[in-house]
Specification:
Helices cover 54% and strands 18% of the residues. β18, α17 (492-502) and β19 (509-510) form a beta-alpha-beta unit. The protein is elongated and about 120 Å long. It is α+β, with helices and mostly antiparallel strands and 645 residues long.
């Protein structure tokens, strides 16, 4: 959805809300004037005042009821108008005016409440600046983001919002991504880093190469998905709609039967019609119908503000029912980037070990080689001069460093060069410990002055857990989710090492799995309950589809992931998943509270009316008051969308 269309829709809704407020105000004025005139003896004014209340409060509702009838539907508006007219017919226009005022007020507040989620979406769209500073031939030209094409260069000054998704070409800064990913801390950006439209640049100027047009940006996709999610009805919402439509027919038919019964019991016409009017009011299912959407829409808006997108209320309700969660490992529980975790120097010091290893690995694009070079660079160690560097596929890399033959690779490489790894007990023990811990070990060796080979040391490399991953898993356990599993294609030792870091037991880890094996494991888990699967949304499409709830994690900027999952976590913070589960469970509780309260109050008032012990004014207050209470209870969920401190 583009900004212009969203603004037009929001403007139309705002206009409707203004008219709704106006009609409610006029209804209230008529009611108050009528009450005051009646109390002060100005009887001539009373009919005109109540007439204003009936026209302002009943007119719009009557028009909506007629429109619904033309479409073959019976709506609650019809019940309210008929109840007010019945009250006037039995000589109680005051009670009818009170009913219309409270019904109009409830409708206005409901309209404003439901518009809150739309305004939240509009607020998301408003995050994108109106101007992008496009750089052409070293000259900045201000253009609307809608007119900027892919591959254009855009300059983002300190303090400005990023206008479009892109990749940093030059400059360094920290960017506040909270509006998109929900991350509470700014994220460092440098050349090659991805940035998203709507995020706020920090202290440094950035030049960004645009990768997506305005309508394809992550921000635009968020708006589209949240809008679609609000339009997609959850099972509970579909039930309340079904209930409301059919129940309206039952109420009209039941009121007619009750009226006939009242006459059969010998009640005077005025009392029979009065009770029938009261029955129309108290039996109307306004509170029941609004119970579910008030909660679901509030939860969807709150979650979107924290970087969690649900594909509609159905996904929200399904997540609340989950009792087991399976995780992909690489890129989900771990960073998906190899990192040097251990440095074990033997014949030289740590600096020299890294200097030789970086010299050999500098020419390689292998992930382990990149990890070694990056680690050395982070510690200010420059690679030694190297010549004749040659890769040995599946083993490592060889070359000459400082004029001597040198090797960096796995166990098989150095053994083939005549180095005995078992000759030194300390070296043997260190190597065994690294391998047992699930590390990929880089063995570094060379041939020194005397031509004898020597073992310089070991580097342990691993894909390390994401920040807050353990905290996120602990938070899930606090939500009652103890059935946690890791499904990975990685080796068992590696997977178990990650499990140890995250506080998971080894029996929760299933390693060496092909994609079809993951699907089989998920089916086994599903046999004992409702299962969610958390993956990257791209490589785990089959598993995401097999699970009851597919959750894609860290997918800001990924169209594929946003499309495939039921729930999308825009950041890499696993704590967001626990928050999403908590929100889903809170929504389920609120829905149950609302439905239980609405149905209970309605049943109580119907019984009291049939027994002749409920006056119409109390019925009006009970009915409309109940509607306002369930709306307010649902809106409490909006508070769950506040960003963490």
């Amino acid at each position: 959805m583009d900004a212009a269309k969203l603004k037009a829709e929001l403007a139309a809704e705002q206009e409707e809300l203004r008219w709704s407020i106006t009609w409610t105000a006029l209804t209230g004025v008529g009611l108050i004037v009528g009450l005051v005139a009646g109390w002060t003896g100005l009887e001539a004014i009373v009919p005109w005042a109540y007439g204003l209340a009936y026209l302002a409060g009943g007119g719009p509702a009557g028009i909506e009821a007629v429109r619904a009838l033309a479409r073959g539907r019976l709506e609650i508006d019809l019940l309210m108008v008929l109840a007010a007219l019945a009250a006037a017919a039995v000589g109680a226009p005051r009670d009818g005016a009170i009913l219309l005022f409270l019904f109009s007020l409830a409708g206005t507040l409901e309209e404003r409440a439901m518009g809150t989620t739309r305004r939240a979406v509009a607020a998301l769209m408003s995050l994108r600046p109106d101007v992008a500073h496009v750089v052409e031939d070293d000259v900045e030209i201000d253009r609307p983001p809608e007119d900027v094409v892919v591959d254009a260069l855009v300059r983002v000054r300190p303090g400005e919002r990023v206008p479009l998704d892109g990749v940093v070409e030059s400059g360094a800064s920290a960017v506040d991504q909270a509006p998109i990913t929900g991350e509470s801390m700014p994220v460092d950006k440098e050349p090659g880093s991805e940035v998203f439209a709507g995020t706020v640049n920090g202290h440094g100027a950035l030049t960004v190469r645009v990768t997506k047009t305005a309508n394809q940006s992550t921000l635009a996709r968020m708006v589209e998905l949240v809008t679609e999610a609000q339009a997609a009805k959850a099972p509970s919402e579909r039930f309340s709609d079904w209930f409301g439509q059919r129940y309206t027919v039952w109420v009209l038919a039941g009121t007619a039967v009750a009226l006939a019964a009242f006459f059969a019991l010998g009640l005077p016409a005025s009392e029979a019609f009065y009770r029938a009017a009261t029955l129309l009011v108290v039996a109307s299912p306004c509170a029941v119908v609004i119970s579910v959407p008030a909660a679901v829409l509030s939860a969807l808006a709150a979650s979107a503000r924290r970087g969690v997108l649900f594909k509609g209320g159905g996904a929200l309700e399904s997540l609340a029912a989950v009792d087991a969660i399976a995780f992909d490992k690489t890129g989900t529980l771990t960073r998906g980037v190899m990192t040097v975790t251990d440095v074990v120097p033997l014949a030289v010091d740590e600096g020299e070990l890294l200097r030789v290893a970086a010299a050999l690995e500098h020419a390689s694009e292998h992930p382990i080689a990149r990890a070694v070079v990056r680690y050395a660079g982070e510690r200010g160690i420059d690679p030694a001069p190297a010549t004749g560097v040659e890769a040995r596929p599946g083993r490592g890399i060889v070359g000459r460093v400082d004029g001597f033959d040198a090797w960096a690779g796995n166990r098989r490489l150095v053994v083939s060069e005549g180095i005995d790894l078992d000759a030194d007990p300390a070296a043997h023990e260190a190597l065994a410990a690294l391998e047992a811990a699930g590390r990929s070990v880089v063995v570094v060796a060379d041939r020194g002055d005397g031509g004898a080979s020597r073992l310089l040391g070991f580097l342990g490399v691993a894909d390390t857990p994401r920040p807050y991953a353990r905290e996120g898993l602990d938070a899930l356990r606090r939500e009652g989710l103890t059935r946690l599993a890791v499904l990975t294609g990685d080796h068992a030792n590696v997977a178990r090492a990650v499990a140890d870091d995250l506080g998971l037991s080894h029996d929760q880890v299933h390693a060496d799995l092909l994609p079809e094996d993951k699907v089989d494991r998920l089916r086994t888990l599903k046999a004992n309950g409702t299962v969610a699967f958390v993956g990257d949304g791209v490589n785990d499409a089959a598993a995401l589809a097999t699970a009851d709830v597919g959750i894609a994690m860290g997918v800001a900027g990924s169209d594929v992931a946003l499309e495939t999952a039921d729930v999308a976590l825009l950041s890499d913070d696993l704590r967001r998943l626990a928050e999403a589960v908590a929100t889903a469970k809170a929504t389920r509780r609120v829905i149950r509270q609302n439905l239980g309260f609405a149905l209970g109050v309605m049943a109580l008032m119907v019984v009291a009316t049939l027994a002749g012990r409920l006056p119409l004014p109390l019925g009006v207050i009970g009915h409309e008051g109940g509607t306002l209470l369930v709306v307010a209870n649902g809106l409490r969920l909006l508070g769950r969308g506040r960003a963490p401190s």
